[in-house]
Each structure stands twice: as structure tokens, then as C-alpha cells.
Amino acid sequence: MIKVAISGVSGRMGREVLKTVLQTEDTELCAAVDIQGAGQDAGLLIGSEQVGINIATNLKEALTISGAEVLVDFTGPRSVLNNVKTALEVGARPVVGTTGLSREDIEAIAALAGQKRVGCIIAPNFAIGALLMIKFASEAAKYFPNVEIIEKHHDQKLDAPSGTAIKTAEAVIEHRGDYEQGLALEEEKIPCSRGGKMPGGIRIHSVRLPGFVAQQEVIFGGAGQTLTIKHDSISRESFMPGVITAIRAVMRLEGVVYGLENLIFE
Q1: Mean pLDDT of 146-163
Q2: What percent of the chain has a predicted confidence (pLDDT) above 70?
Q3: Per-residue model confidence as pLDDT tens digits over 112-122
Q4: Residue 157 annotated in active site
Q5: Partners of 231 in the beta sheet?
Q6: Residue 159: helix, strand or coil by DSSP?
Q7: DSSP 66-108
């Protein structure tokens, strides 16, 4: 049994992870952490019977007392870095679904994970279909170097663009080589109306509206044709097979793996 702690357990993703960990044969919930619902039994979050784990607010204390082997973090961009560092310091292996970490943040995490010889997985997206979308997009970029990305999420998402959109753009840049798209004389009459600009001129457009979970389109343009690769997460259940895969995989890792695709497609 893998002893799993969940940070951000009261959130929508946290509750889905909670349900999945409780239902999976080889994972055991050992701690639940959140600033909301302190002291209540975690089972009440998903309408189940009490599970004997009360929600704690002090992450380091909860990890230490419970002997957690893995910390699954779905909190927010403002707290995730400290949460990951705390987990690594006490020897728990982070599985991070929270987006918003900068390249510098990831480098700092990698240095600490290497020092502690503890595994860590940071995944902008746990949905297998989304990972395939990135893989297919990177292949298409060899033939269609002009690309824009439209990502759509619920209106409670704090960061934009999404980690998945950034990861997709990075994969395209890596595979299409040295290329600069776009019109140099282009003028935006309303600032940012063309979206955020990544290296090489790739534009990312972020939509935030109620009703969405997560959707992304990668649109390629060529002479007389377009190619669209699209993925929809209709419910948060779509992320759970990837989360469980990461929990199992992180137990045998040392150092940081950025992107679940680096584990499942190798």
C-alpha cells in the first residue's frame, strides 16, 4: 500500500483525487490537508462514510505524523512551491497537478529533489488524451510550423495560460526547429487581442467561462489547409488514471520528471 497525502483536498480536483485514492487497491489515504474544513472527516467531502482522517491545516505536521510516502498537490499557484519544498524536506514524494510554477521554480525543486534523492512528478495535465494531443501536435509541427493554441477552462482557474498550453507550445518549438511565424507589422488595436506570445511567435488564447472543465485546440495553418488537434476533459474523472499512474511511478524515481508523457510514452 502506498501512503498518500492530499493537499488541497477540499477543492474540486482534491475531492476527485480523494475519491480515487480511497477506491484504489494499492493506495491508502494517510493525510488530508486544506485551509478549509479543518477538523472534519475527509470522507464528508465526497458524501461517503467517515474514513478516519481529519482535515489538517499544517502540511509539514500532517506529512510527518502520517508517514506519507506521496503528496498529491492540487492547491494553487501561490502555495504549490512551498508545499513541494515541504514535502521534499520530510521525504514525501510530490505529485504536482497545480499549474503556475515558473521555470525557476521547477529548477529549484529539481535541485532540492536531487539533494534529497527523492522523486517528484510535475504534470501540467494528467489526462492521457491531453498528453496524446501534445505528442500529435509536436509531430504535426514538423510539417505545419504555423500554429496557434486556444485553451478553455472554468472561470475559477487562477493562472493563464494553462500549463498544458505552455507545454504544448514548448513541444511544438522543440520539434519544428528555428522558425518565426507571424506578421512583423501586425497591430493590435486592443492590447493582447492576439493572445499571449511564446517564442517563435506562437500565440496562446485563454478563455475562462463557467461550464468548461478543460479544453484545448491546437490549430495548424498551411497552404490551402488547416489541421486542428483538439482535446476535451468533460469531467475531472478524466485526470484520475494519470494521477494513479504518477503515484505509482514516483515511488521508484529520484529527481524531477516534468510531464507525465515522459513516463508513459517512453
Answers
A1: 94
A2: 100
A3: 999 999 999 99
A4: yes
A5: 216
A6: coil
A7: HT-SEEEE---TTTHHHHHHHHHHHTPEEEE------HHHHHH
pLDDT of 240-251, one tens digit each? Answer: 999 999 999 999
Contact by Cβ (8 Å): 126, 13: no
What's CA 204's distance to the chain center, in Å? 17
Alpha-carbon torsion angle 242, 254, 1, 30, nearest 10: -90
Q: Give the whole-angstrom CA distance, residue 52 versus residue 31.
A: 10
Catalytic residue among 153, 167, 205, 231: 153
- Respond yes or no on whether the N-terminal peptide bond of residue 161 is cis (omega within 30° of 0): yes
Res 265: pLDDT: 82
Model confidence band, residue 176 (pLDDT cutoffs 50, 70, 90): very high
Segment (H or E) for 133: helix 128-140
Residue 153 designated active-site: yes
Q: Which of 60, 142, 152, 157 is catalytic?
A: 157
Please list, in sequence order, all residues whose beta carbon lies within 8 angstroms of the beta carbon of residue 140, skipping any fewer than 6 positions away: 218, 220, 227, 229
Q: What's the DSSP call for residue 178?
A: S
